[in-house]
Structures
1.
Amino acid sequence: MKIFSKYFSTLFGIGNMPIAPGTFGSIFAILIWYICINFISIFYFIILFVIILSISFYITGIYLDKFKKKDPPEVIIDEFLGQSIPLLFVFNLNIFEVLVAFVSFRFFDIYKIYPINIAEEIHGSYGVILDDIIAGIYALIVLMVYKILIDI
């Protein structure tokens, strides 16, 4: 299980990239979303998100315990989950909506605006994952405002 936790938490090693692993985790989420929306169905992306979310706290906890780190940069499953939240509401290939979702998520993930900064202080896998979930919710709000303004 420890080996699986390493692959799961680092998105199969993407998190070990020397530069911007979190950004590449977000890009990976967009790639999986793109494959689902164009070749399968958004429904499968939703199912994948729910499955990953439901097991991520436990499996990431195993990884954190193994390496005795608080929030290692190679753990990017949280970026995948956070980036997926606004993507759950992009139903067709609209590059501007994807860019708004990506840029706003990365902004909130990097700058840790309240209460993201508070969630980040929670011990263990909950702190690692919840701050990105909140950043994803903020990005979703920005995306919804963008969609409303475009429709006006």
2.
Amino acid sequence: MNGPKDRTATVAADDDGIRLDRWFRRHHPALGHGALEKLLRTGWVRLDGKRAKAGDRVAAGQVIRLPPPGLLAEGEKAQHETAAPKPVRPAMDGSRLKDLILYRDDVVIVLNKPSGLATQGGSGLTEHIDGMLDALMFERKQRPRLVHRLDRDTSGVLVIARTPSAAAALAESLRHRDASKIYWALTRGVPQKLRGTIRLALAKEGGHGPHGRDERMVAKDAGEDAKRAVTDYAVIDRAAADFAWVAARPVTGRTHQIRVHLAELGTPIVGDFKYGGTDARPRGEIEDRLHLHARSIDIAHPSGGRLRVTAPLPPHMMHTWSLLGFDPDLQTNPFGAARTR
């Protein structure tokens, strides 16, 4: 296969230690994971002249053999043509935010955030929870405020404070881990250990393109640029070896923590193409959307006692649970009481 059209790239110091598929995602973001796997299987992509796998770690100074421009372009075109279109969610105004309320009292409101609605504004975002909070003032003159956030495509329990003192108290509880947040996820494949604790430090990996978009988190050895991250998990049910219903409890609160940790186990969350690539694709009638839901929270209430709220699954996950024969109303906490970092 060697010939005059062969091209190579040398791994730079900034890329030392990352996976080979992440090197391609960083330097050739238009190349899909499936296309890369095919190029690796057929030997068009090699590491120091040897066949390699997508999960192999690269080291500074190593030489990556690249396919001819024509083959690389074909892979990029295939990724563009097969990319699943993002689901269209109806626009939401502030008045409809009230329909999402799960719990409300004098100082706290808890919403069931839908998948696809951002918690806060960002680049190109005009619709988000934070921009609609005026609709939840009710009898108070103060605007409610967020005390934590969820990823745009993650649904579920979102706590909002109605007073500054409540916001401070809730933030203090979250800071000192006097809270237990349990997420439900559907993974592609079943973890080898049915329950355990994932301890993998996470660091930010810069985004691609002129504006640095598509920033990702990557698992690294703990160090100056990586922060400690710990997630408890337990398999609640499974569908043969294809899918697992996993409960996850983040002990630390890093960006995309559960998504990265489950992907690192080799069982990415269904619909999480950011961290699972094509391995996150579902089957049959299961929707091509992120299957991650903030199921419940147990946190110290600012006025005393505990605030415990559970959120029903979003429609796409409810449909999946029905297809797989899982019980969406199951009331279970496989972890017991909250634990500290």
